[in-house]
Design brief:
By secondary structure, the chain is an alpha/beta fold. Helix content is 40%, strand content 13%. It is built from seven helices and five strands. Strands 1-2-5-3-4 form a five-stranded mixed beta sheet, covered by helices on one side. Helix 2 (108-120) crosses helix 3 (126-136), helix 5 (159-174) crosses helix 7 and helix 6 packs across helix 7. The radius of gyration is 16 Å and the shape is globular.
Length: 200
């Protein structure tokens, strides 16, 4: 399942670049586009009706690396501001519909979605927020650096980090082979968080 109303006052879709065409007729009002700095905007956007779009450019890494752009606090502040804009869409006919994409719809986009949902529903626990994200995108493995910045900005006191670790743990339980690829890709901190997470 790619699209859900969750508990936010707007619809939300999470996908990768290869899936963008599938959502051109889905009533999307806002697009949060996250991809590598050296990639051009996906041409699929031309098939969407008029919409508001925020493009953020950084690599899918969780710590600074030479010659690569890590997500910054400013990036997270910008995506949260965009999330507030979606939530404030006038309810004249249909509510806003936010599409968030990164390259594969797994890491950067799911982290951004969790923060935007947490901001839109501050009464919901971080665990509920990430459960909602996983319902929309079962392959979720949210970028820890983005979650760390967002947790601090939203004043969640580490709650978002603990909930993200449960997502990692569940994904490893379902797909143990992903552990080696994550470690090899520089995501050791996320794997360590998963192994330390207590489902209870």
């Amino acid at each position: 399942m790619k699209t859900s109303s969750t508990f936010a006052p707007f619809g939300i879709t999470i996908c990768g670049i290869p899936e963008l065409d599938d959502h051109a007729a889905a009533g999307v009002t806002h697009i949060l586009s996250i991809h590598d700095p050296d990639l051009a905007d996906p041409p699929e956007f031309s098939g969407f009706p008029p919409h508001r779009r925020l493009s953020l450019r950084f690599h899918d890494i969780i710590q600074p690396e030479p010659n690569r752009v890590a997500p910054s606090k400013e990036d997270v502040e910008r995506l949260l501001k965009f999330g507030r804009e979606v939530a404030d869409t006038p309810q004249t006919s249909l509510p806003g519909h936010l599409l968030i994409h990164c390259h594969a719809g797994v890491s950067r986009s799911t982290a951004a979605a969790a923060l935007i949902l947490a901001q839109a529903a501050p009464d919901r626990s971080a665990r509920e927020v990430f459960e909602a994200v996983v319902r929309v995108r079962p392959r979720a493995w949210p970028n820890l650096r983005i979650v760390e910045f967002g947790d601090r900005i939203l004043g969640r006191n580490g709650e978002m980090l603990d909930a993200a670790a449960l997502v990692y743990r569940d994904r490893l339980d379902r797909d143990p082979d992903i552990e080696d690829s994550m470690i090899g890709g520089g995501r050791l901190r996320e794997v360590v968080a998963a192994l330390a997470a207590s489902p209870g």
